[in-house]
Amino acid sequence: MWKICGYELNRGEKLQVMLHPNGREYEIPATLICGAQEGVGMTLLITAQIHAGEYNGTAAAMRLAKKIDPEKLRGNVILMHCVNTTGFWQQVPRFIPQDHTDLNADYPGNESGTIGQQVAAWFVKEIFPAVDFIADLHGGGISETLAPCIFFPRAPKVRDCALEAAKKMNVKYLLASSNSVGEYGYAANCMDIPGFILECGYGGLTREEWVRQVQECMELLLDHFDMYLMEPPVRKKYRKKLFEETEYLESDMRGVWYPAVCENQSVKKGDLLGELGDFFGNMKKRYYAVGDGTVIYYTSGMSVLEGDALVAYGLEDSAEEV
Ligand SMILES: [Zn+2]
């Protein structure tokens, strides 16, 4: 018997439900799967659309929900198909529209706060203590072009477990992260629960190649933890490059942005990364690379506010092949 979110599942059972954090009207569509296989089983949490508009993880989660046969599963899986459901239905990117909560930056939340704060607090109280690993599925935003990559926690107690799993994923780039206020980051740093963010796709697009890539990664994760053997097994691709340090360039003013780089591009120290100007074509500021690196993601849209991310590039000095 597996007790989770007020439900009780027997071995071999799969349940599709709307979860209601704190019993409120807020809805999270989820598939709960209790494996029938004997042996030491862990509970894996897979979340999609913590940022609304990052759709490929949701499509992959829906496919996994159908494909995973509970009779062949060892342990339990929680698939949350879409966490920011109000953002999804209101077509508002990233944040929870009622209160602008960013579930990748505003943990641990507050049980008696706004709805977004309640959702974060519900994860901390009800979900995290019941899981052993978290895979949080993201992508670039509407104006954010990115190369598929994984952010894994630097936190010493969980780093090795998260990194070993990340190394099995079908993406090229692995980036160490100190985020301690997002879903997986809070769980890693404050509750010693390993996990990672998988970023795949961008631009508000749902593309078959990206959905398949996310699905393959999650199937490789289930295999890595000896929870499920996919048939046919997923082929591992890509040599990986691990960046210990990533440079996150942010804008220090509002402006009209012209990027000078693309994802996957190598840059040398001093190379132009892009320039900000005004609506009349007057250049205000140029931004240059502070070291040799590889561009992981960048803002590809023109509109940039003060403090917005412009370009993120992994620093070659800190990189190794893994
Ligand atoms: Zn995101």
Key phrases:
2 domains, about 325 residues, OB fold (Dihydrolipoamide Acetyltransferase, E2P), alpha+beta, Aminopeptidase, 5-stranded antiparallel sheet, globular, 10-stranded mixed sheet, binds zinc ion, 6 helices, 21 strands
Overview in brief:
This protein has six helices and 21 strands. The protein is α+β, with helices and mostly antiparallel strands and 322 residues long.
Produce the secondary structure layout.
Elements lengths: L1 E3 L2 E3 L3 E7 L8 E7 L8 E6 L7 H12 L8 E5 L4 H6 L24 H13 L5 E6 L5 E3 L2 E5 L2 H11 L6 E5 L5 H9 L3 E5 L8 H17 L16 E3 L2 E5 L4 E5 L6 E2 L4 E6 L5 E6 L4 E7 L3 E2 L4 E7 L3 E3 L1
Parallel strand pairs: 5-6, 5-7, 7-11, 9-10, 10-12
Antiparallel strand pairs: 1-2, 3-4, 4-6, 8-18, 9-11, 12-21, 13-20, 14-16, 14-19, 15-18, 16-17, 18-20
Helix pairs in contact: 1-6
The structure holds zinc ion.
Explain what the structure shows.
The chain is of the alpha+beta class and about 325 residues long. It folds into two domains: about 1-225, Zn peptidases (Aminopeptidase, 3-Layer(aba) Sandwich); about 245-320, RNA polymerase II/Efflux pump adaptor protein, barrel-sandwich hybrid domain (OB fold (Dihydrolipoamide Acetyltransferase, E2P), Beta Barrel), CATH 2.40.50.100. It is about 20% helix and about 30% strand. Helix 1 packs across helix 6 (about 210-225). The relative contact order is 0.13. The mean pLDDT is about 95. Zinc ion binds next to loops.
